[in-house]
Specification:
With 458 residues, this protein is mostly beta strands. It has two helices and 41 strands. The protein folds into five domains: 188 residues, Ribonuclease Inhibitor (Leucine-rich repeat, LRR (right-handed beta-alpha superhelix)), CATH 3.80.10.10; 44 residues, no CATH class; 35 residues, no CATH class; 35 residues, no CATH class; 77 residues. Bound molecules: zinc ion (4 copies). The site of one zinc ion has 7 residues, from loops.
Length: 458
């Protein structure tokens, strides 16, 4: 009984504590080993052996037969390529550690690793090959690094725990890379978004839109306006709000507005210019609603201009006909020459304070022009010698050579002396009252011979 019990204990302990480390060649200079605690380590110097598709070893690696023991995988630094089927079918593996040097994960490399729940794919991996993670049925949400250009056919098929795949870069995939029902999480302008929409997969936004405000425009009578909107500079989607919550197909239009009608006032025609009828147009787009039409010039407004008779001092004119709007003559008047004066004999006329007079001669009875004789200016326009009213006798030579144009001798004066006004060359007029009884011939000797000696006054 004791012996049997011992045997049972031994049998139970063997699988737990008695696995020795195993190891071997994985390449010319590469090694593999499985530690006592089930870590498969790939070490040494790359590359790993690869096998031809028609080789017996194509589907097998030396560590496959220890599948039951292998719980995790560590690939040491330096390895670049994980060949096809590298860790195929290691169904007990729960964790994998890959170095940053890995660039290529080969065909079906992790296919059937059904206990694997997560894996960090290193930044630097270029692509994920056909069937790489196929059948990793416990693999949950996974992040694909930006370095991955494409995920090949079946790479994540039959991964029934995988609900989301996060693609921060511009990674693309083919139609059956994933099972239907997966959600693609990627940026709005990524290739994977387009592929997700094309293949009918669910898609969620990774990151945010990069929204740029676009100004609105007021409508005119020619073009509709639009409300301001926000456009994503990455995916060029339109949004009606700055938060990018309300996506719109196109900017919201504001309808065309009415024309701005302006009345074009009538322009009456004249006798010199055509006119225009009243019209209307739009001051914004210049569309004409009522065209203005040209109206013909109107007739001149003629009026008679009466004849003007010529006189002895001005020319006359014949009758004319003129347009009193524009001044155009229909019949231009002709000039008639001035008439000649109507000459009559005239006695001398004494000047007054304000009116001119003249010496005896001939004048025009119409215009008063002096034809013969000398005009004597009005007294107010001459330098006049007024003798005082008390003067009774003007002595000899009293005013000889005096410089004046007129001399007024007062009534009451009785005698004028010899040469009293001799040599007064400027004198034109002398008033000599009737009270003067003696005035010698030489009183005005050497004066102007035409001097007007006016004896007519009192
Ligand atoms: Zn966007
Ligand atoms: Zn208009
Ligand atoms: Zn006219
Ligand atoms: Zn006259």
């Amino acid at each position: 009984m004791k012996k049997l019990f011992f045997c049972v204990i031994v049998l139970l302990l063997i699988p737990v504590c008695c696995y020795a480390e195993v190891r071997g060649k994985a390449g010319e200079k590469a090694r593999w080993s499985i530690s006592e605690d089930g870590v498969l380590t790939i070490s040494g110097t790359p590359p790993l052996y690869t096998y031809d598709e028609y080789d017996d070893l194509y589907y097998e690696r030396p560590w496959f037969k220890y599948n039951d023991r292998i719980s995790s995988i560590t690939v040491n630094k330096g390895f670049i390529d994980l060949p096809a089927y590298c860790f195929y079918g290691l169904s007990n593996v729960t964790s994998v550690s890959l170095p940053d040097s890995i660039k290529y994960i080969g065909y079906a490399a992790f296919e059937g690793c059904s206990s694997l729940t997560s894996i960090v794919i290193p930044q630097g991996v270029k692509w994920i090959d056909f069937l790489t993670f196929s059948g990793c049925s416990n693999l949950s949400d996974i992040l694909i690094p930006e370095s991955v250009g494409v995920i090949q056919q079946g790479a994540f098929e039959r991964c029934r725990s995988l609900s989301k795949i996060i693609l921060p870069g511009n990674t693309d995939f083919v139609e059956d890379s994933f099972d239907k029902g997966i959600t693609i999480v990627s940026s709005c302008n990524s290739r994977s978004r387009a592929s997700a929409l094309e293949y009918g997969l669910k898609w969620e936004m990774y990151g945010t839109h990069d929204l740029v405000r676009q100004d609105g425009h007021e409508p005119t009578c020619v073009e509709p306006g639009n409300e301001p909107y926000w456009e994503c500079s990455k995916c060029h989607a339109y949004f009606s709000d700055s938060d990018g919550e309300n996506e719109i197909d196109a900017p919201v239009l504001i309808p065309i507005v009415d024309h701005t009608v302006v009345i074009d006032p009538e322009v009456p025609a004249t006798c010199t210019a055509t006119g225009l009828t009243a019209g209307s147009h739009c001051s914004v787009c210049h569309k004409v609603f009522v065209a203005q039409e040209v109206t013909e010039k109107i007739d001149h407004t003629y009026a008679f201009v009466p004849e003007v008779e010529a006189t002895c001092y001005s020319e006359g004119a014949s009758m004319g006909i003129i347009c009193n709007v524009c001044g155009k003559w229909l019949v231009a008047p002709t000039v008639t020459p001035m008439k000649s004066h109507t000459i009559v004999d005239s006695g001398a006329v004494a000047p007054t304070e304000t009116a001119a007079g003249h010496t005896e001669g001939k004048i025009c009875s119409v215009c008063g022009a002096i034809i013969e004789g000398i005009e004597i200016p009005a007294l107010c326009n001459m330098n006049v010698l007024y003798l005082p009213a008390s003067v009774k006798h003007i002595e000899d030579y009293s005013f000889t050579g005096i410089d004046c144009q007129a001399i007024i001798i007062p009534f009451g004066c009785e005698t004028i002396g010899e040469h009293a006004f001799a040599d007064c060359a400027s004198v034109l007029y002398v008033k000599i009252p009737s009270s003067v009884v003696s005035c010698p011939q030489n009183a005005f000797s050497e004066c102007n011979p035409d001097v007007f000696l006016d004896f007519s006054a009192n």
